[in-house]
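A note from the maintainers: we've had questions about how concatenated examples are separated. There is no special marker in the raw files; a new sequence line simply starts the next protein. For clarity in this README we add a label.
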Amino acid sequence: MLYGVPTPRRRDAQRNRSAILRAASELLLTGGAFAGMPEVARRAGVGQATLYRHFPDRGALIAAVVADRLALLESRGALPFRALLAEGLHTQAAMRRLDPESRRRLTARVVRTLGALLRRAQSAGEVRPDRTTADLTLLFMMLSASGEQSAQRSIELLLDAFCARPEQLVRNIGPELDAVDRSNRVENPE
C-alpha cells in the first residue's frame, strides 16, 4: 500500500494465489477430508512460504476459497438453476469447516444470490413454482446437518426435491409405467 492506495499484485503473485485457491478448492469440494496446508502447497506447485504469505492459516484459506466460489456463483447467472444450486450446495458443504459466524454470513450471501435467480428459474419453468427463498435457507440448513461422508448424496437428493416439477416426473415415468403395464398384459392375458 502506497499513500493509502492498495497496489496491485504482481502477475506471479496473482498466478500463485489462483493456483492455491484452485488446489484448495479441489480438495475442499471433492467431499473428502481437507488435507493440510502442505498438501495444498504441493498441489498448487508453490512452496509453503508462498502459501502462508497469501493465507496465514487454514481458516483464512478456507474463507478465501468459499468467497472465490461465491463470486464464481454470482457471475454464472445464465446457467441453468439446477447447476447454480448444485454449486451453492457444494460451497455450503465446504463451509462446514468455517467458524459459525463466517458460515452464517456466507450462507446468507449464497441464499441472496440464489434467491434472485430462483424467481427467474421459476418463470422459465426450471423450478417448481411453490419453492421460495425460505426453502433455499432450509436446504442449506439440511445440508449442514448431514455428515461429511453423506454430503454428495444429500446434495443429489436436495437438488431432485427442489428442482423437479411434478409434471416432469409424471412425463418421465409415464413411458416406463406403460411398458410395465404392457408386459403385465402379455404375461397375464385376461
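[label: protein 2]
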Amino acid sequence: MLRTSFIGHRFSSGPVAAALLTVLFAARPEASIAQAAGSVPPAPGRGTSSANAPTLDAALSAPNQPAFAMGEVLDFRVNVSRAGDVGQGQMRVEGPVMERGTLTWRLVFVMQAQRGPIKAVDRTTSWINPTTFATTRFEKSERHPLSRDQETVEIDAVTNTWTRNNGATRLLATPLPLDELSFMYFLRGLPLDHDGTFTFSRHFDETRNPTVVYVRGEEMVDTPAGLFRTRVLDMHVRDPKRFQGAGVIRINLDMAGCHMPIRIMSRMPIIGTTTLLLTGSSSTATAAEHSPAGCTL
C-alpha cells in the first residue's frame, strides 16, 4: 500500500499493491455504509437498496465472453488530493499463454509512483481461464525504498486448494476463484443498464468474502482520453488483515461495449482522496476473434 507522507518526502514500508488492488487503491476502514458515503464524492443518481435490488449469487458463472479484449492496454494518471499527480498506472491483457496445461489470459497491472527522488513500483499479475473466468495463478511484487515483497498464489482446482509461496495451503472458498486484479476485470461483465446490488463470494481466500457491489447512477467523466458516459459502482471489499474491516472503492465504468474503468477513487488516511484517471487506451491484438462484440479501442 502506498502509505505516503508527502511531508518530508517519505514513503513508509506499507505495500502499494495491497492498497491499489483491494481493489486498486484501498479505501479507509469503515464500520457502516453511512461512513462510506463520505469517503468519496457522492455519485449522481440513486442506488437501489439491498432490500429490493437484484442480487447475484456468489457462485455466479462467467459470462459467455469477457467484456474486454485480448491485447487491451489502459493507461492511468495517479493523483492524490493533497499532493497532485504522483505517478502512472497501466492495466493490460496479455496472451494467450499456457499455464500448467491450461490456456490462459494474463492480466497485468503496473503502478509507478514518485515524489522527488523517492520511487515505488508495484506489479500484479493474474492468470485466468477465459472460459470459466477463474484464476489459476496470482503474483504481486512490490519494490519500495525501505522494503521489497513478493507474493505468489498457486491455485489447484483438482485438490480445491490454494498455496502461498510461504508454503501455507488453504481450501478454496469457491470453485470459481478470483483475486484482486481479476475481480476488477470480472466487474466489467456486470449489467450496467439499471441500478442494483450484486453480492459475490468469488475471492479465493474465504476471509475476503463477500464483496458487495452497488451499481448506482450515470455520470459523464472528462479525461485526457475523451469524454465518457459512465455508470458509478461502489464496491465494498473485505480485508481483515490490512483494514480490520471494510473498504469502499468507487469505480466509473464506461457504458460502451468494453466497460473500461474510466476513473477509480478512494479516500486514504493522511493523503486524502486518491484517483486513477484514464489517459489513454490501445490494443496490441492481432486477431479479431479475441475482441467481444461492441468492444473496440
